[in-house]
């Protein structure tokens, strides 16, 4: 049960595929006409095709953490960027992170793992 999941129970979408034991489904009802429902959009500052988006996770306050090839960005529900954490060298992030106990966990293709504070984006 997603609500009994230790450390991630309060998050809307804590992993790339959702909650453990409930992958790829949610109790949230989404609108049918998705073209009319988007409240905001984001493009990489270097251009729409400057990087590859990897995945998104959503915390209990509906903030989105977008994993992009060069780093991770936290957005408010209204689309404002709260923080940005860039990886160096860029291009090693091809995995979606996970949320647990106020931290964002992930790994890079060069073998490094990271834990970021969800509030500040600091390691």
Automatic annotation (TrEMBL):
InterPro entries: Quinoprotein_ADH-like_sf, WD40/YVTN_repeat-like_dom_sf. This is Uncharacterized protein.
